[in-house]
Design brief:
About 70% of the residues lie in helices and about 0% in strands. By secondary structure, the protein is mostly helical.
Length: about 525
Amino acid sequence: MSAPDADATATTTTAETGGISSKGLSAGTVGLIGAVVIGISCIAPAYTFTAAIGPTVGAVGVQVPAIILVGFIPMLLVAFGYRELNNRMPDSGTSFTWAARAFGPWIGWMAGWGLIAATVIVLSNLAGIAVDFLFLLVSQLTGNAGIADLASVIWINIAVCLLFVLGATVVSYRDMQTTQKLQYFLVSFQVVVLLLFAIVAIVQVNNGNAFDATPFDWSWFNPFEVSSFSAFAAGLSLSIFIFWGWDVTLTMNEETKDPEKTPGRAATITVITIVALYLLLAVSMIMFAGIGDGEYGLGNPDIQDNAFFALAGPILGPLAALVSLAVLTSSASSLQSTFVGPARTLLAMGHYGALPERFAKVSPKYFTPGFATIVSAVVAAGFYAIMRVVSTNVLSDTILTLGIMICFYYGLTAFACVWYFRHQWFDSVRNVFFTFLFPLVGGVILGVLFVTTLIDSMNPEYGSGSEIGGVGLVFILGVTIIVVGIGIMIWQSMKRPAFFRGQTLSVDAPESLRRSSRARRR
């Protein structure tokens, strides 16, 4: 029997007993550094920060560093929960698998749906920003300002977007080694440019060349100086958006070396690296441009969608095109690496019988979830095309909708950690913090933010101002995605009852957890 056939037999046998099982992915191909690089790529710091810094300043003013830190807290707390779950159950289904093992198939299915929906939203968003910066870069290099306006022509925008999605799909379809090699270069380039941008901005301030020099103040790190809770919640939602993507390191857990430890370590290193980079960028940009609504002020609504592009010239002068190239490579590389998450979640859902068997197919040549990758690409491209026509500001509305979905499935996963390890909370001081307190606090924060954002987004003025029937488009998108997920889940429960009866992926029995806990204490 060949190795793939052996894997298939083991997979079938284990899946039928309701346990975790292998899916035929290429094991041991991603190391710690590779996982961190792919994690940073998926977060796409150059893209996310230029898209979020303006709206965040609009919500909380100079308290951006404080909001970044506060947004970092639930991400870090949830990351600890993810690490504990991965240590116990390394599985490419991550949130789907873990929530199913903790709460049962129905909640597990919705956790998987939340992850897939979030990544499809951001895939469309990444493709859109890549299109904008492609034309901006060409405009800068040629000196022809009219070229940048081509991005606003809907049919051109959508056509180029589809080309970006196609290119990312081709790379993602291939083996993880191809993904790693591409990401090493792209991630290194964007991080170097961002560091250069921040350092030169601070030097410009010290030399008296800033647009609106704002002296650094430690009060910027005080979240209690935010004007209102609504402003705090809006800023926090945007802050969480800029951290999203680190969990891709865990969806690769069946392909990493030392799968019980490497993915969790990679997630923690990724989050800490990103928060340090964001704080440096936020401080340098506020010091240079201020938060006013002048030409280059971060409070100017005309530049809030693309603050890096607006400030690149004043800060870097003749090297300004590097910033556009960095954001372009950031969005393009993240577009490719982000395919890793939904494809492997869909693979796991197909493997355990929560979706059609086609989703469980692994490419015999590349050992990647080929069918699931193609489906993710088609849905993301279709979502972007629809949003580009419906929304007056597709990037703003999809970012805010993404925030809702992040809170939804991250929160479910955090609570899954708390409940799954409930018989081991007090086995040690470490367990009290990492399996109970940290994920619980992170889950509660995300749950409160989820409800608050849903309520606020009902207002037509929330986001871009797009609305349907007097209700904000962001609220309609968020609720529609969840309702559609519930509908598909009910349909799948009738078509594939075995999963929903717990026959292919069962809840871990309390007694087995107690035995495991007693064995570790011995």
